[in-house]
Amino acid sequence: MSLEFDYWLLEFIWSLRFGAWNLFNTVYTAKGDKSYVRSVFAMRNFKYLYGPVPSRRLGRSLGIDLVRYKICTYNCIYCQIGGTTDKTLVRKEYVPVEEVLEEVKRFLKEETVPIEHLSFSGSGEPTLHSKIGLVIKEIRKMKSIPVAVITNGSLLSLEEVRQDLLEADVILPSLDGVLPETFLRVNRPLEGFSIEKVIEGLEKFRKVYKGKIWLEILFCKGINDSMDELYKMREVISRIKPDQIHLNTVIRPPSEEWAVALDQKEMETIRKFFGDNAIVISEFNRHTSSFQRGNIKEQILRILKRRPLSLSDLAKGMEVREEDLSNYIGSLLKEKRIRVRHFEDKVFYEVSERDPETLSL
Asked: Quick one: pLDDT at residue 319?
């Protein structure tokens, strides 16, 4: 079938809901594409899950979002999903545990595409959820898929948070600056929150945690890439003892325009400085996560909610020709559900802050 016909057929089937499912499934089963058919509708009815997305670090990963947009302990200058709207250190049950677990269970039962990691990340800082430990434990009972937690590491100074994360298979904390002035400028925590406390928490966690720690550092030109910063960073990292050091830079529109990326050569120089267990994870030749076909406009909105992307990024990730996708982009722009954002001479698209329907996806 042509791509255009696939889209038309999917929209038609969805309009009929599941009454036509058996016929559609039979047609595609004959083609040998049964898993593709099931994945078409996979993410339509999930509120707290996103993906699965291919990740350089985690392979094919299913994202689990435990906090609402954009609740975080920091307001990082480079954040690709925008400025923090609720900066807090308060831990509570931001989304219902029962609903999250039900969605994960349903996804694992219905999904036919292999998942390499279940990862906690998304719209804010996942360790702010007071029951993340319970969610991890319950998920591990469902299926033997490794669990990853992508965190800024700010709450690891709390004993309860360290205990909550012990059953995860890999923790990916951030540490973007170790000099106090750098930390304040890059991460912009709540007043009175210190980098010393963050480092102490990472060191304590390393002593009790038996899984893998992949420490991420995101560099912004002229802000946290000085030699003073790098030497101090290396000394601190020697105490934290991560299994890997992941080096990153600004590759998508940041929340602050003055957060500028390092180039590939500069990143490679820093990698050599940190040694053999450091790797550059920045995708200078970006190939964005793939998304399932289905309601194309809804898929676009879901992924743009979490990060701004160019038309090329979206087309590659969704495996759609740019000329076909541009019609949907044009429609969403006209509806004012997305907007244009310019970054490094490129055009990116992001969700409109004024569209409550999009933000509720």
From this structure: 61
DSSP string, 223-239: TS-SHHHHHHHHHHHHH
**Adjacent-strand bridge partners of 92:** 129
Burial of 34 (0-12, 13-18, 19+ CB in 10 A): middle
Helix residue ranges per DSSP H, 84-226: 97-110, 132-142, 159-164, 180-187, 195-208
Q: According to the model, what pLDDT value does residue 286 have? A: 42
- CB contact set of 41 (below 8 Å; sequence gap of 6+): 14, 294
- Three-class SS state of 27: helix
Distance between CA atoms of 293 and 295, rounded to whole angstroms? 7
Q: What is the pLDDT of residue 11?
A: 37
pLDDT score of 355: 52
Which of 146, 162, 163 has the alpha carbon at shortest distance from 154?
A: 162
| CB proximity list for 128: less than 8 A, separation 6 or greater | 66, 67, 71, 72, 73, 88, 89, 90, 91, 92, 94, 155
Beta-carbon contacts of 177 under 8 Å, excluding residues fewer than 6 positions away, are: 183, 185, 186, 187, 195, 224, 229, 233
SS3 of 170-203: the string is EEEEECCCCCHHHHHHHHCCCCCCCHHHHHHHHH
CA distances from 74 to 45, 183, 188, 189, 334 (A): 30, 10, 6, 5, 33
| Close Cβ partners of 344 (under 8 Å, ≥ 6 residues apart) | 261
Can you give the pLDDT at residue 357? 54
In 3-state terms, what secondary structure has residue 209? coil
pLDDT mean values, one per 10 residues, the chain (361 residues): 37 35 36 38 70 81 91 94 91 96 92 86 93 97 95 97 98 98 97 95 98 98 97 98 96 89 95 95 54 64 81 74 78 88 84 60 51
Q: What is the DSSP letter of 47?
A: S
Domains of the chain: 1-40 (no CATH), 42-285 (3.20.20.70)
Q: By CB neighbour count within 10 A (0-12 exposed, 13-18 middle, 19+ buried), where does 185 fall? A: middle
